């Protein structure tokens, strides 16, 4: 599927490969931090001078009680969530919004984690299970959004595309993936194809909404056509806001004549141009996409708990298994 197609690099790509300038903190971040520190200080003072339940009550009044989570993992079981919105994103992808049980609840997902969906067709012997990474923010209350591409032979994607407002789907979570903390790595690279972009977007969103996180991010995103590029407006906004820390490169299998990005599949030559060097300190490369992309770039993982052997282009370029994570 992902043959070694020559990469027709546009001139801007060559100019920006592996080049980042030092960036000062985002404007306004110092005020935000100052305000946050003040709030914590007030809360700490309230707790010091009061005792028992009164102290706890006063602290909650100042800093606010933590929102209740819909998904708590463990033995919670399945939740039947109702569809509240359906939006056509392109010819084969929909954004489907599911209501959480309570309007003031957050999902309970952390970075990085996903949810598991389930449904059983009337003529099926077993239920179909599929993981998805929501594209809604972890702080959003009352709903989660799934970005679902319909595949001709995909029972779950076909089922979700057929859901109407008011109908329900069984969902549980969170499913833990890669545990992230601010500045865990100096530079990360995200290699994605198709809807494999959703866990990458979750990670990117968490990094750039945190003013303390200064991680540099390089995204390589492969698709069939220009219309298949999901969440591009979000990435464009990040690239314009953080030009010294975020760079995105796109490749298309069927590129139009006016396309200024890459042509063909994601290749070893492209990765060599834009990824952080394998000998660089404290880097991480994340990979997610269809089996053909995984096989060509990193090798497929064996199971959710077994990353499998590192093979493909990343191994050929000198990256180690410890530097690569397969979503």
UniProtKB/TrEMBL annotation:
One of its GO terms (molecular function) is cytochrome-b5 reductase activity, acting on NADH. CDD domains: cyt_b5_reduct_like (cd06183). InterPro entries: CBR-like, Cbr1-like_FAD-bd_dom, FAD-bd_FR_type, Flavoprot_Pyr_Nucl_cyt_Rdtase, FNR_nucleotide-bd, OxRdtase_FAD/NAD-bd, Riboflavin_synthase-like_b-brl. The chain crosses the membrane at residues 32-50. It is a single-pass membrane protein. Residues 76-181 form the FAD-binding FR-type domain. Its EC number is 1.6.2.2. One of its GO terms (cellular component) is mitochondrial outer membrane. One of its GO terms (biological process) is ergosterol biosynthetic process. Keywords: FAD, Flavoprotein, Membrane, Mitochondrion, Mitochondrion outer membrane, NAD, Oxidoreductase, Transmembrane, Transmembrane helix. It catalyses: 2 Fe(III)-[cytochrome b5] + NADH = 2 Fe(II)-[cytochrome b5] + NAD(+) + H(+). Its cofactor is FAD. It is found in: Mitochondrion outer membrane. FAD binds at residues 130-132, 147, 149, 156-157, 198. Belongs to the flavoprotein pyridine nucleotide cytochrome reductase family. May mediate the reduction of outer membrane cytochrome b5. This is NADH-cytochrome b5 reductase. It comes from Trichoderma harzianum CBS 226.95.
């Amino acid at each position: 599927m992902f043959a070694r197609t020559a990469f027709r690099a546009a001139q801007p790509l060559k100019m920006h490969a592996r080049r980042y300038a030092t960036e000062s903190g985002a404007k306004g971040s110092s005020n935000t931090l100052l305000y946050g520190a003040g709030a914590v200080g007030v809360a700490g003072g309230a707790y010091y001078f009061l005792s028992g339940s009164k102290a706890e009550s006063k602290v909650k009044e100042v800093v606010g009680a933590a929102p209740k989570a819909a998904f708590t993992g463990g033995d919670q079981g399945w939740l039947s969530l109702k569809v509240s919105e359906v939006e056509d994103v392109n010819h084969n992808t929909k954004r489907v919004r599911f209501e959480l049980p309570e309007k003031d609840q957050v999902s309970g997902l952390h970075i990085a984690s996903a949810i598991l969906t389930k449904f059983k067709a009337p003529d099926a012997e077993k239920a179909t299970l599929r993981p998805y990474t929501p594209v809604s923010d972890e702080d959003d209350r009352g709903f989660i959004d799934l970005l679902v591409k319909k595949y001709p032979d995909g029972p779950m994607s076909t089922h979700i595309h057929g859901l109407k407002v008011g109908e329900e789907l069984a969902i549980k979570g969170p499913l833990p993936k890669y545990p992230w903390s601010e500045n865990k790595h100096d530079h990360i690279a995200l290699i994605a194809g198709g809807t494999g972009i959703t866990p990458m977007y979750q990670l990117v969103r968490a990094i750039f909404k945190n003013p303390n996180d200064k991680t540099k991010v390089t995204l390589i995103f492969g698709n069939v056509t220009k219309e298949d590029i999901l969440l591009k407006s979000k990435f464009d906004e990040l690239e314009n806001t953080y030009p010294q820390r975020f760079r995105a490169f796109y490749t298309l299998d069927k590129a139009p004549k006016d396309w200024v990005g890459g042509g063909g599949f994601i290749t070893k030559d492209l990765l060599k141009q834009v990824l952080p060097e394998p000998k660089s300190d404290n880097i991480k490369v994340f990979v997610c996409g269809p089996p053909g992309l995984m096989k060509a770039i990193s090798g497929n993982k064996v199971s959710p708990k077994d990353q499998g052997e590192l093979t493909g282009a990343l191994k050929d370029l000198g990256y180690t298994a410890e530097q690569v994570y397969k979503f």
